Amino acid sequence: MKPPEVGQSASETVTITDEMVREFARLSGDVNPIHLDDAYAAKTRFKRRIAHGTLTASLLSRVAGTQLPGPGSIYLNQHMKFKAPAYIGDTVTAEIKIIGRRADTPIISLSTIVRNQNGEILMDGEALVYYEPVT
To answer: Where does 9-131 sit in CATH, by number?
Structure first.
């Protein structure tokens, strides 16, 4: 198996659903009404419910663990800057690009971005993953 190279990229596109947000709230314990209660959310600056930022960011782990670098990837860290919310019904794309590889260890640096269907950046950052696939 050829190791991933700097410049390679991968992405995954998902539509954020009510069911997804509610399941994430159940699993994470984050039951903030901004995510779950239409009446509450209507009174906020967003005017409607928003998905958990970490739900959208977790899609990056999906891409790293299944596509690039792929199975054998273990997240070491993630720097994130949230720029805009994802709303229920938005279609978001999590994008990863390899921006560096350490020569002495199997550690890979990634550019990480989540965009909505309009191309608006919802979250950007950088991550480090340890990559040791089982062959």
So the answer is: 3.10.129.10
Is residue 101 within 8 Å of residue 107, measured between CB atoms?
yes
C-alpha to C-alpha distance for 48 and 37, rounded to whole angstroms = 9
If one counts every other C-beta atom within 10 angstroms of the C-beta of residue 43, the result is: 11
107 phi and psi angles, rounded to 5 deg: -105, 130
Say if residues 92 and 14 touch (Cβ distance below 8 Å).
Answer: yes
Cβ–Cβ under 8 Å, residues 15 and 44: no
52-96-57 Cα angle (round to 5): 10
Convert the pLDDT of each residue in 32-74 to its tens digit: 999 999 999 999 999 999 999 999 999 999 999 999 999 999 9
The pair of three-digit structure tokens given for residue 30, joined into one six-digit string: 């984050």
Report residue 32 as tokens: 């903030």
What global pTM score does this model have?
Answer: 0.92
User: Nearest Cα to 77, choosing from 130, 133, 6, 30?
Assistant: 130
Domain ranges of the chain: 9-131
